[in-house]
Specification:
With about 475 residues, this protein is an alpha+beta fold. The protein has helices at about 5-10, 55-60, 110-115, 125-145, 205-215, 250-275, 275-290, 300-310, 320-325, 330-335, 350-360, 410-420, 430-435, 450-455; strands spanning about 20-30, 35, 45-50, 65-75, 85-95, 150, 160, 170, 200, 220-225, 240-250, 315-320, 365-370, 385-395, 400-405, 440-450. It folds into two domains: about 5-105, Nucleic acid-binding proteins (OB fold (Dihydrolipoamide Acetyltransferase, E2P)), CATH 2.40.50.140; about 125-170 and about 205-465, 2-Layer Sandwich (BirA Bifunctional Protein, domain 2), CATH 3.30.930. The strands form three sheets. Strands 6-10-11-16-15-14-13-12 form an eight-stranded mixed beta sheet, with helices on both faces. It binds 4-amino-1,4-dioxobutan-2-aminium adenosine-5'-monophosphate (4AD). 4-amino-1,4-dioxobutan-2-aminium adenosine-5'-monophosphate binds near residues 164, 206 and 446.
């Protein structure tokens, strides 16, 4: 059963040879031209059949979505649109697809409709292109870190600590939901639970990654993370993948340098290795944007936008400078922002982040030195006593794509911070130990993988760049 994939066949090296290919019918025109695709590339191979030589039974089964094995000769194409095609000698139908009930027909389906058919949407050009780019990005990320002296660290999925301190966690329990054991106070007694304590799905592998960085030097996680925040937006998932590098002896500047170099590098990788898919996605976006008002269209075609990121420095701006810019901005003065900025200390909303990136600087921006009050407990306090060594990277069309910081390595300062926030030391005794034994300056960041895929593919909704999105009220498939 040896066969050649479509990508290989289209290279034309097997001209005039008998070839076998397996794939799914995209279209079947004039009882003669089958466009076959096997997922190896966005492009189809045209298979030309002499329908008079085909059995009626087989002809009837050649519908969009049917799985076929085709044997024939690879020849130069007579028609336009492709260099080579297959002159078909034999067709074996692996499995048909009833055109009355098969939902993915050769026409434009809305992304909303396709979300309801997430098990089949990968058969469309758009989703296959997005998921090939996703896979390439995943490879490029591992490659980047492995080539730069990082070790891959597998963070636990089940954890007893709340890394971000936001309390938006999914509980993991093996207790009976009908009759859980209760404490004297009438609350569920998690001491009786599987792990003997309350446990949750992780919101971040960072705290555990820090333990490994303080021995291996440079590590990175690339795993699923879970947040039970009720954010029904086009940028939030309840289950998403995060890449979290953590480096000993890195200060915030080195952390920002790494993050910028890393993002540029993985985008350069897809520009080089995913050209067909990116061209398809760029054209798709241009078609989609024709129906939008001029003001909502992206200022650059997709590939130009990606090259812009690889070729230009990210603008680095302190939170304090950013607040000044926002306070004096037109939308703030004209009360166009939903959340008006009037005081230092305000948390930035996505509308503010996007204003800075899309309207003011018109390039990716790294904001640093945020007020301690709006950031997590583990970030290093600056000498001013009110800001922390945090950094967020903001991207056009996306908003925040990276969140990171230099970590508080001073035991006394960390303890004070935890006490002020009511985080019990017993919960994080092992994290405090890192500050007792061989503590050192260290830093890291988290990149939301789906937000990177959103940016790289030009898609508009995060639900369309992960195979089976998990969002409030939605865990189908
Ligand atoms: O800024 P966050 O919350 O940072 C952390 O979790 C740190 N522990 C990271 C670190 O320093 N190691 O999240 C990091 C990134 C965000 O910038 C965003 O890209 C993504 O994770 N993210 C989400 N992506 C999709 N859906 C959500 N609900 C997300 N929440 C965060």
């Amino acid at each position: 059963m040896t066969s050649t994939n479509v990508k290989e066949l289209l290279k034309g090296n097997l001209l005039l040879q008998e070839v076998t290919v397996n794939g799914w019918v995209k279209t079947f025109r004039s009882n003669r031209f089958i466009a076959l695709n096997d997922g190896s590339t966005i492009n189809n191979i045209q298979c030309v059949v002499d329908f008079e030589s085909l059995e009626e039974g087989i002809l009837k089964q050649i519908n969009t979505g049917a799985a076929l094995r085709i044997i024939g000769t690879l020849v130069e194409s007579q028609g336009k649109g492709q260099n080579v095609e297959i002159q078909v000698k034999e067709i074996i139908v692996h499995g048909g697809a009833d055109p009355e009930t098969y939902p993915i027909q050769p026409k434009r389906h809305s992304l909303e409709f396709l979300r309801e058919k997430a098990h089949l949407r990968i058969r469309t050009n758009t989703f296959s292109a997005v998921m090939r780019v996703r896979s390439a990005l995943s490879f490029a990320i591992h490659q980047y870190f492995q080539q730069n002296g990082f070790y891959n660290f597998h963070a636990p999925i089940i954890t007893g600590s709340d890394a971000e301190g936001a309390g938006e966690m999914f509980r993991v329990t093996a207790l009976s939901d009908k009759k859980p054991p209760l404490t004297d106070a009438g609350e569920v007694d998690y001491k009786e639970d599987f792990f003997g304590k309350e446990t949750n799905l992780t919101v971040s592998g960072q705290l555990e990654a820090e333990t490994y960085a303080m021995a291996l030097g440079k590590v990175y996680t690339f795993g699923p993370t879970f947040r039970a925040e009720n954010s029904n937006t086009s940028r939030h998932l309840a289950e998403f993948w995060m890449i979290e590098p953590e480096m000993a002896f890195y200060d915030l500047d080195a952390n920002m340098d790494l993050a910028e170099d890393f993002i540029k590098n993985v985008i350069a990788y897809i520009l080089e290795n995913c050209q067909d898919d990116l061209h398809f996605l760029e054209k798709r976006l241009l078609d989609e944007e024709k129906s939008k008002p001029q003001t909502d269209r992206s200022p650059m075609p997709l590939i130009e936008k990606l090259k812009f990121v690889t070729d230009n420095s990210f603008k680095r701006v302190s939170y304090t400078e950013a607040i000044d810019i926002l306070r004096n901005s037109k939308p703030n003065k004209k009360k166009k922002f939903q959340y008006l900025i009037d005081e230092w200390g305000a948390d930035l909303q996505s509308e503010h982040e996007r204003f800075l990136v899309e309207k003011h600087f018109k390039c990716p921006v790294i904001l640093f030195d945020y007020p301690a009050k709006i950031k997590a407990f583990y970030m290093r306090l600056n000498e001013d006593g009110k800001t922390v060594r945090a950094m967020d990277i903001l991207f056009p069309g996306i908003g925040e794509i990276v969140g990171g910081s230099q970590r508080e390595e001073r035991l006394d300062v960390l303890k004070e911070k935890m006490a002020a926030l009511g985080i019990p030391e017993e919960e994080l005794w092992w994290y405090l130990d890192l500050r007792k034994f061989g503590s050192a300056v260290h830093s890291g960041f988290g990149l939301g993988f789906e937000r990177l895929v959103l940016f790289a593919t030009g898609m508009g909704n995060i639900r369309d760049v992960i195979p089976f999105p998990r969002t409030p009220q939605n865990a189908e498939f």
